[in-house]
Amino acid sequence: MGLKIWLDGKLVDQEDAKISVFDHGLLYGDGVFEGIRIYNGHVFELDAHIRRLYESAKAIRLAIPISSEELTGAVRETVEANGLSDGYIRLVVTRGAGTLGLNPFICKRSSIFIIADKIQLYPEELYEKGMKIISATTVRNHPLAIPPQAKSLNYLNNILAKIEALDSNVPEAIMYNHEGYVAEATGDNVFIVKDGVIFVPPVEAGALPGITRNIVIKLAQKENLQVVEKNLTRFDLYVCDEFFLTGTAAEVIGIVEIDGRMIGDGRPGPITCLLRKKFFEYAHGKEK
Ligand code: PXG
Question: Largest CB tally within 10 Å, which of 7, 108, 195, 285?
Answer without folding.
Answer: 7
